[in-house]
From TrEMBL:
GO molecular function: DNA-binding transcription factor activity; sequence-specific DNA binding
PROSITE patterns tied to this protein: HTH_ARAC_FAMILY_1 (PS00041), HTH_ARAC_FAMILY_2 (PS01124)
Lineage: Bacteria, Pseudomonadati, Pseudomonadota, Alphaproteobacteria, Rhodospirillales
Organism whose genome encodes this protein: Azospirillum oryzae
Coiled coil start-end: none
Domain HTH araC/xylS-type, residue spans: 215-313
Keyword entries, A-Z: DNA-binding, Transcription, Transcription regulation
Pfam families for this protein: Cupin_6, HTH_18
Protein name (record): Transcriptional regulator, AraC family
Keyword Mitochondrion in annotation: no
PANTHER family cross-referenced by the UniProt entry: ARAC FAMILY TRANSCRIPTIONAL REGULATOR, HTH-TYPE TRANSCRIPTIONAL ACTIVATOR RHAS-RELATED
InterPro entries referenced in this protein's UniProt entry, alphabetically: AraC_lig, AraC_XylS_family_regulators, Homeodomain-like_sf, HTH_AraC, HTH_AraC-typ_CS, Tscrpt_reg_AraC-type_HTH
Length: 362
């Protein structure tokens, strides 16, 4: 099967891989003097790294412009117009037209020069995501992430920016491939910086991943998603009672821990159905289900159709046939834990068709 959980239970790597994140460097902007450019909403997640100089950034829908200095990196996750310039009060030229003109001029390559081009240099790139599973990442990102040059992640990012700048300036064979790999590492550093922020992240896997008390349980679920995890096991790994763990997990992630596990299993199943020929029965077994029918029922509750039909539709019409998300959204409480019953020890989320070892009592 194509999808394999990370051996050491690394949830961030798992999610970024499943979301199909791929980075590429799209162009460079050199500027000097008084200037301003406007850009249409990017069709993909956009990142901009400030190599030298400083610039003002204004994003539609965000009240305050941001001042970006050398070493700062920003990521735009929302499709909103934005402006860059030395002075945002100046009339802005069309940045998209400038880059389109540069692309058609072999003497310019991917570099646009505004004014004297001697005071400012930025490298831009984009992140493409899988058309179906990309929302796992896109839905939890804010419109703008600004990682300053003084952030804890700054040393690693400075090294990446230095390597990226040298690679783009050198013009050696394989430059775009190497630049893309460096951009991928820069993207991960941006996500790490976002997870480390002191500000609110909202519900979702980002909230759970940032909580150090929940991290051991997340690593267990991602390291072996097919194991019949009991709520008590996950709670003990996190050093909490079942009730306290379930309440804390839901407060951070928006769903209870066993719902999170179910949703993650369904995402792994979806990828395998779309990208592999593994029999449905084998997928069910790998994800811990007692029978193909139990797995099929769980999959149908999530995606609204049986796994065999889902695979056939994808094979016939491609990605357009795939559903855009879990029924009711990624935070849907499909089989969530009843906290009141947990106090009495009556339930920990069983009854979902996942095989369980009766000797392993939570």
């Amino acid at each position: 099967m194509e999808v394999r959980p990370s051996a050491d239970g690394d949830p961030l790597s798992d999610i970024l891989t499943l979301a199909g994140s791929r980075c590429a460097v799209s162009g460079r902007l050199a500027a000097g003097g008084d200037w301003a450019l406007r850009f249409p909403p990017p069709g993909m997640i956009k990142f901009i790294a400030i190599m030298t100089g400083n610039v003002w950034l204004a994003v539609d829908g965000i009240d305050e412009p941001r001042h970006l200095d050398t070493g700062d990196v920003i990521m735009l996750a929302a499709e909103r117009p934005f402006r860059l310039g030395s002075d945002l009060a100046l009339p802005a030229e069309d940045g998209a037209d400038a880059f389109a003109a540069a692309a058609g001029d072999p003497t310019k390559g991917d570099r646009v020069t505004v004014g004297n081009g001697a005071e400012f240099l930025a490298v831009g790139g984009h992140v493409t995501l899988d058309p179906t599973r990309g929302h796992l990442l896109r839905d939890v990102l804010p419109p703008l992430i600004h990682v300053r040059s003084g952030a804890p992640e700054a040393p690693a990012m400075r090294w990446l920016l230095e390597q990226l700048g040298a690679e783009l300036a050198g013009g050696r064979p394989g430059t775009m491939l190497v630049a893309g790999q460096l951009a991928q590492m820069l993207f991960v550093q941006i996500i790490r910086a976002h997870l480390a922020t002191s500000g609110p992240l909202g519900h979702g896997w980002t909230g759970a991943l940032r909580d150090p008390r929940l991290a051991p349980a997340l690593r267990l679920m991602h390291g072996d998603p097919g194991r019949p995890w009991q709520l008590g096991e996950l709670a003990r790994a996190s050093g909490m009672s079942r009730t306290a763990f379930a309440v804390r997990f839901k407060a951070a992630a928006g769903v209870g821990p066993l719902t999170y596990l179910l949703n993650w299993r369904m995402r792994l199943a979806e990828r395998e159905l779309c990208c592999d020929t593994t029999p449905v029965s084998a997928i069910a077994l790998s994800l811990g289900y007692q029978s193909e029918s139990a797995f099929s029922n769980a999959f149908k509750r999530t995606f609204g159709m049986a796994p065999s039909l889902y695979r056939n539709r994808y094979a016939t019409t491609g990605p357009s046939a795939r559903r855009s998300g879990l029924r009711g959204g990624a935070h849907d409480d499909l089989v969530d834990v009843d906290i009141g019953r947990l106090v009495d020890g009556e339930s920990d989320g069983t009854g979902d068709g996942v095989r369980r070892d009766p000797k392993r009592v939570a």
